[in-house]
Amino acid sequence: MKHDSDVLIAGGGLNGPALALALAQAGLTVTVIDAAPPRARAEPAFDGRAYALALASQKLLAATGVWPAIADRTQPMMEVKASDGRPGEGAAPLFLHFDSRELDQSPVGYMIEDRFLYAAFLDAMEAEPNLTLIRGTAVTAQEIVPGGVTVTLSDGRTLSGALLVGADGRRSATAERAGITREGWGYGQTALVAAIAHELPHEGIAHQFFMPTGPLAILPLPGNRSSIVWSETAENARIIAALSDEDFLAVLRPRFGDFLGRISLAGPRFSYPLDLTLAKSYVAPRIALIGDAAHGVHPIAGQGLNLGLRDVAALAEVLVEARRRGEDIGAIDVLERYQSWRRFDGTTLALGMDTVNRLFSNDNPVLRPVRDLGMGIVQAIGPLRRGFMRQAAGLSGPLPRLLQGRRP
């Protein structure tokens, strides 16, 4: 069967472009169908959205050629500190401290603003001859046909490929049309997201404070700025989100603390409800899911994008190797190799973050000293602590070539 492209990708956020570049650079033809308007997320003004990139994710971006375009816009994370806390009281005396000097490689990770990362992906896709980007258009239907899959677009066009990849988020229409069901639950929490300017330098240190109503992450950005991801109960968050900027800061300050001096808002505020959603399968005939389409997780450790890029690296390697062997890249036995590589890791990490959130998002007088002692024990045992660090950096387990900084 003659295809328009080897691989069709529904979704042009971040994971879709990353996979498209990896495949196109290996010689496959790829079409990315992005429902967002052209460059809608690549505006020059800072909108407060940012990502924590694990060290392995940075290696993937380097291997696909995206890293040079953003390297000087990133903020290295040299240390991570995690502790229990209560508003107005500061961190608990027992805490967990990850220092990049303990890794074979440093830093622990990098912070990058969404506008820079997305723009770099757009530029790289537009420069890749094996890649076609269709913007402002959605996939409205898909059909498995002999030897491939066809999709219908919102502008009436039809396209065919050997494989359709769903990179279209937690409510993936690709998964739904393929009959892939999901399981999960809400947390009764909402994430309040904003960028904060502060008086004192952050020294490249990321902080995670576990408050009774939800975790507060303070993540360093270039300059005297930090990104916050503040999880609150849904009712509290609804009230806080409706406050003026000054009243919002008044509620934040007791939780943020004064260790960075005076604080102010450095961009708009966002909020979104938190839930866990896991696809019961990552694959179906001629279909594969990556990123949030496969697993939507709690932002407690900033691992959402990193988990998606692990999917990208594994799927790219499976497809490229299958093509080199002359196999049908959309065949279910090929796709099962991807699922067997990624589903256990994605599910265990998602449930692990779920457990941490449930363990720490309370002020239970029995649990609090136990969890503080647990963090103190991990901190005191070097090999255990370094194991957690390697896991957070994405350097544990069998790594695909892209996560090692090599092309598949």
From TrEMBL:
Entry's Gene Ontology BP terms: ubiquinone biosynthetic process
Gene3D superfamilies to which the protein is assigned, alphabetical: FAD/NAD(P)-binding domain
GO terms under cellular component: ubiquinone biosynthesis complex
Residues passing through the membrane, by range: none
Entry keyword Oxidoreductase: yes
Domain FAD-binding per the UniProt entry, residue ranges: 5-324
Metabolic or biological pathway: Cofactor biosynthesis; ubiquinone biosynthesis
GO MF entry, a single one: FAD binding
InterPro entries listed in its UniProt record: FAD-bd (IPR002938), FAD/NAD-bd_sf (IPR036188), Ubi_Hdrlase_CS (IPR018168), UbiH/COQ6 (IPR010971), UbiH/COQ6_monooxygenase (IPR051205)
Keyword terms of this UniProt record: FAD, Flavoprotein, Monooxygenase, Oxidoreductase
Cofactor(s) recorded in Swiss-Prot or TrEMBL: FAD
Superkingdom as given in the UniProt entry: Bacteria
Annotated PANTHER family: UBIQUINONE BIOSYNTHESIS MONOOXYGENASE COQ6, MITOCHONDRIAL (PTHR43876)
Family: Belongs to the UbiH/COQ6 family.
The protein's name in its UniProt record: 2-octaprenyl-6-methoxyphenyl hydroxylase
